[in-house]
């Protein structure tokens, strides 16, 4: 009996972890639907565009904090965008922050 109960708890823990992971990636791609972000065209500087394009192509998002700095230098003060770019990730292709810079939908 304990073994069955233990397996159920293990299965439940696995299900919870899987659900957390799926929710994280949904937020990574879609952003927060309750806090829509407006992106100013002036923030799309050559530096921001080059960084975002390189990350998108290579799928290496280690430059996300640098992208945040470039956006801030361009006048972006939106904490949702800046915090997302400076967040720990992991970031993936389709990241809403990079897609905003690249004007992808």
Overview of the molecule:
- This is SMI1/KNR4 family protein.
- It comes from Gemmata palustris.
- The protein is mainly α and 105 residues long.
- The chain has a domain at 31-102.
- It is 64% helix and 0% strand.
- The chain is built from 5 helices and no strands.
- The chain has helices at residues 2-30, 46-58, 64-73, 79-86, 96-102.
- Helix 2 (46-58) runs antiparallel to helix 3 (64-73), helix 2 (46-58) packs across helix 5 and helix 3 packs antiparallel against helix 4 (79-86).
- The chain is elongated.
Short account of what is shown:
This protein is mainly alpha-helical and 105 residues long. The chain contains five helices and no strands.
Which descriptors apply to this entry?
elongated, mainly alpha, single chain, 105 residues
Secondary-structure element order, as H and E? HHHHH
Overall geometry comes to: elongated
SS strand fraction = under 5%
* Helix fraction by DSSP (H/I, runs of at least 4): 55-70%
How large, in whole angstroms, is the Cα Rg? 18 Å
Write the layout of secondary structure elements.
Elements: H1 2-30, H2 46-58, H3 64-73, H4 79-86, H5 96-102
Helix pairs in contact: 2-3, 2-5, 3-4
